[in-house]
Every structure is written in C-alpha cells, then in structure tokens.
Amino acid sequence: MKKTIQSLLILPILFLAVPNPVLADQYPDKAVEKLGNGLANAVTGVAEIPKTITIVGNRDGVIHGMTVGFLTGIANAVGRSMSGAFDIATFLIPTTPFVKPSYIWDDFNRETTFVESHMR
C-alpha cells in the first residue's frame, strides 16, 4: 500500500519534469527571438520620444505634442528600454513582450502601450 501511494505521488512529478517534445522544438527559436526583441527595445527606446511627439502632435496639435507628447515619450522610452532589459535578462524564460508593438518600427504611427506578460 505504501509503495502504491509513493508511486502515485512520483508519477505527476515525472510528468512535470519531462520536457514536452512539442515545446522543445520551438524553445530555442523563442529564446533567440526574445533576446533579439530585448536588444532591439533596449537600444531603440529613445526613439519613443520623437515618435510620441509626432503622434500626439498630429492628433492634438503642435503645442500639445511638444509638451504632453514629449513627457509621454520620455515615459515610453524608459518603459521600452526597461522592457528590453528585462527581456535580455530573462530570455531563457518564454514570455510575450510587455510593450506593444513589439518593435518600435512595427506600426510607427501607433501609440505604444504596455501590457501584462503571459507565458507563450
């Protein structure tokens, strides 16, 4: 009886410890993709400032773009750079990017947003 209970307790642990073959094929690609995304975002974060000034200026006027757009751009620049640094530090753990769009050059006319990360 005791050996049966031990076997039943060990079985779920083995299922968790054995890597899933389907995910194992994709894992190296996901890790490299996350590292590349992190490097790109860490380096290009500063481009959020002119991007946000332009977007806010076109939408709300030049004065608003130069003030609110500038301050929002600084916040977005810090956020994108920090998101990139986080992705670099944790590239071995597959997660989705915190920042949308994932790269600054993806849909350059779209405002940057930050989202909650989920496992891929």
Output the number of helix runs: 4
- What Rg is obtained from the alpha carbons, in whole angstroms? 21 Å
Order of helices and strands: HHHHEE
Strand content: under 5%
Write up what this structure looks like.
With 120 residues, this protein is mainly alpha-helical. The chain has four helices and two strands; from the N terminus they run H-H-H-H-E-E. It has a two-stranded antiparallel sheet.
List keywords for this structure.
120 residues, mainly alpha, two-stranded antiparallel sheet, 4 helices, 68% helix, elongated
Which secondary structure elements does this structure contain, and how are they paired or packed?
Blueprint: H1 2-17, H2 21-44, H3 48-60, H4 62-89, E1 99-100, E2 113-114
Antiparallel strand pairs: 1-2
Quick overview of this protein structure:
By secondary structure, the protein is mostly helical. Helix content is 68%, strand content 3%.
